[in-house]
Amino acid sequence: MIPGFDRDGCKDTPCPVKKGDKKKFSYKLTIPGATPTIEADVKARLIGDKGDLFCGTVHGDIKD
């Protein structure tokens, strides 16, 4: 879990989420200055009342 991450996805995309709906989910995150240069896969999971709504992986890197 990311420190300070708000677990309420409805603050970042309109809710309720319904089957067949297309939604855009975005989240802005401040990367601390002390973070080292790194390349990694970032995994995201959005969980609803009845289980997973979305799971995905994005490859990214943090550079100076």
Automatic annotation (TrEMBL):
It comes from the Eukaryota. Pfam families: E1_DerP2_DerF2 (PF02221). Residues 7-58 form the MD-2-related lipid-recognition domain. This is MD-2-related lipid-recognition domain-containing protein. It comes from Medioppia subpectinata.
